[in-house]
Amino acid sequence: MALNSKSKLTLIGAIAAVLIIGLLVWNHQKKSVADELVIGISPSFAKPLQAAAEEAKQQGLNVKLVEFSDWNTPNITLDHGDIDANFFQHQPFLDNAKKETDFKIKAFDVGAATHVGLYSKKVKSFDELQQNAKVVIPNDPVNQGRALQLLQQAKLITLKQPDNFLSGVNDIAENPKKLQFIEVEGPQTARAIDDADLAFGYPHYLRLAKTADPESALLFDSNTDKRFAILFAVRDDYQDTNGKLRKFVDIYQNSPKVKQALDADFGAKLWFPGWK
After folding, report:
1. CA-to-CA distance for 253 and 251, rounded, in angstroms?
2. Count of H-run helices and E-run strands, the chain
3. Would you state the pLDDT for residue 31?
4. What are phi and psi of 12, to 5 degrees?
């Protein structure tokens, strides 16, 4: 049946209305995505960042946190421009990553820093460690050096250059107990603790993995070295449009709710602000 002129106009009007509504929805979605701040994170840092994101949302800032399980992908993804920033690494780690790649990444600001420790489920003191005991350490150059310095602090080894935080296992000068080193990715040290006599560990990863009490280390590092504070990192060409990242970082650094989340996640005595 043919449509009369009035019916045709009505149909055209309805189609036009649908198209206009669709265009408005698309523009709104596009604007929402454009206004969204996307940050790549390690799961172990999630809860304090989620607390900051919830507070940011109340202030009109939408933040999307994307979790990565390893320590390589966050920088690759950031360098490709798929996220606005990442939060998982400290400055020595970033410096080493840039040295080994062509990443164009820089620090935007800093977050919390945490103490690290030596943990064991098999001995209660270093004196109980047997010859050829198995020790878990990270496999990346920077965090491995940090682990070896802590083993040196425990008087279990001596390094050729005692103050070199980039020391590797080949830089061990003395190893009287002939410790056997198991090298794993940093995030996996928390899970590898069950397979070793001693493990270098990060309190926040241990809490996440639930493999050991984060406060039960036989020894914690003795200083508050802010070099190891976790960074908000961005591309060299990053433009902080409308101050979105600046606003989020300010919330992270100053919010009482974020501090509560940091205390709960890391232990009130096991973290310190890298920005102060």
Report:
1. 6
2. 9, 14
3. 40
4. -60, -40
CATH classification for the domain delimited by 117-220, as one of 3.40.190.10, 3.30.230.70, 3.40.47.10, 2.60.120.20: 3.40.190.10
- Asked if pLDDT for residue 21 goes beyond 50, the answer is no
**HSE (side-chain half, CA atoms, 13 Å) at 123:** 17
d(CA 260, CA 276): 18
Cβ-in-10-Å burial (0-12, 13-18, 19+) of 201 comes to buried
pTM: 0.80
Q: CA–CA separation, 31 vs 12, rounded Å?
A: 28
Structure tokens at 127: 């004196």
- What are the φ/ψ torsions at residue 109 (nearest 5 degrees)? -165, 180
Task: Decide: 117 and 136 in contact? Cβ < 8 Å.
Answer: no
| CATH number belonging to the domain at 31-114+226-273, selected among 3.40.50.300, 2.60.40.10, 3.40.190.10, 3.40.50.11260 | 3.40.190.10
Contact 204, 252 (CB under 8 A): no
Q: What is the pLDDT of residue 23?
A: 41
DSSP line for 86-102: EES-BHHHHHHHHHHS-
